[in-house]
């Protein structure tokens, strides 16, 4: 194996992955409740380190390391800015916590508070009315479509002057275990994902914007593209060097 080609190829693959993550963040910079992904990188161990044979390698190459390796993508759970909409069924959460929605028996968490009353009279996501919100007992929220609904700071829902239900506000012990399911939904882990009651402030008539800063992401994207191009150029240079070595230097006269 040509060590330089191996390191450069590792750099190309890793920066391609990072570029995809950043591009997806930029594409969702206007998506309500979207949480950006963090493309984390780590140093790849050398083959000798992986096999536990530090003595069986070139002492000049070993200190260079094994190149870059993509780590697991992490969801950045920091809140986005809140924006007024004037719609009583839009809510934004201030503080730690999530809204819970369910579809087909599958419960997910979200910070997307754009809500509508679907055809079944249940409170649901505006971009997918089949995803219904859960109340504090983890039951569907049923409303009367004849009356407007108001939502207070603790999530209490009132219609026609009467309290009808309260939004479920939840969290889990380790938010890093949440996984993206698409449509701004975060899936619960198989273990350690028990829902716990949370107490964020509910702001009715507001939405939480994406926590993506387009300017920062564009800067990171340009940096990633330069690193990708640099590694690709190094592969080209090393390929030309090998070609000269094999076809010119190694030619038998």
Query: Can you give the mean pLDDT?
Result: 88
Please identify the structural class as seen in this structure.
alpha+beta
The sequence of SSEs as H and E is HEEHEEEEEEEEEEEEEEEEEEH
Q: Outline, from the CA principal axes?
A: elongated
- Tell me the radius of gyration: 26 Å
- Tell me about the biggest sheet? 9 strands, antiparallel
Total beta strands:
20
Q: Tally the helices: what do you get?
A: 3
End-to-end Cα distance:
27 Å
Low-confidence stretches: none
Helix content: 25-40%
When the domains are counted, the total is 2
Beta-strand percent range:
25-35%
Brief description of this entry?
The chain is of the alpha+beta class and 253 residues long.
Structure in words:
The chain is an alpha+beta fold and about 250 residues long. The chain has 2 domains: about 5-75 and about 210-250, no CATH class; about 80-210, no CATH class. It is about 25% helix and about 30% strand. It has helices at about 5-25, 45-50, 215-250; strands at about 35-40, 40-45, 70, 75, 80-85, 90-95, 100-105, 105-110, 115, 125, 130-135, 150, 155-160, 160-165, 170, 180, 185, 195, 200-205, 205-210. The strands form 6 sheets. Strands 7, 8, 9, 10, 11, 15, 16, 17 and 18 form a 9-stranded antiparallel β-sheet that branches. Strands 12-13-14 form a 3-stranded antiparallel β-sheet, with no helix packed on it. A two-stranded antiparallel sheet has the order 1-4. Helix 1 (about 5-25) runs antiparallel to helix 3. The longest helix is centred in the last third of the chain and has 36 residues, at about 215-250. The relative contact order is 0.20.
């Amino acid at each position: 194996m040509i060590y330089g080609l191996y390191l450069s190829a590792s750099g190309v693959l890793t920066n391609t992955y990072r570029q995809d993550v950043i591009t997806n963040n930029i594409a969702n910079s206007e998506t309500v409740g979207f949480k950006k992904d963090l493309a984390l990188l780590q140093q790849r161990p050398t083959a000798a380190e992986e096999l536990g044979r530090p003595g069986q390698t070139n002492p000049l190459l070993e200190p260079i390391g094994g190149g870059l390796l993509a780590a697991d993508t992490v969801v950045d759970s920091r809140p986005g800015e809140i924006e007024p909409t004037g719609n009583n069924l839009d809510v934004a959460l201030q503080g730690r916590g999530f809204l819970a929605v369910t579809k087909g028996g599958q419960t997910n968490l979200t910070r997307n508070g754009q809500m509508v009353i679907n055809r079944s009279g249940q409170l649901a996501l505006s971009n997918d009315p089949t995803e219904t919100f859960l109340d504090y007992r983890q039951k569907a929220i049923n409303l009367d479509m004849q009356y407007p609904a108001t939502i207070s700071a603790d999530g209490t829902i009132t219609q026609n002057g009467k309290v009808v239900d309260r939004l479920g506000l939840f969290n889990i012990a380790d938010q890093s275990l949440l996984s993206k399911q698409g449509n701004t939904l975060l899936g619960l882990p198989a273990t350690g994902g028990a829902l716990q009651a949370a107490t964020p402030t509910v702001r009715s008539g507001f939405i939480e914007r994406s926590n993506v800063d387009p300017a920062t992401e564009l800067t990171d994207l340009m940096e990633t593209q330069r690193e990708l191009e640099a590694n690709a150029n190094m592969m080209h240079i090393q390929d030309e060097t090998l070609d000269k070595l094999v076809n010119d230097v190694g030619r038998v006269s």
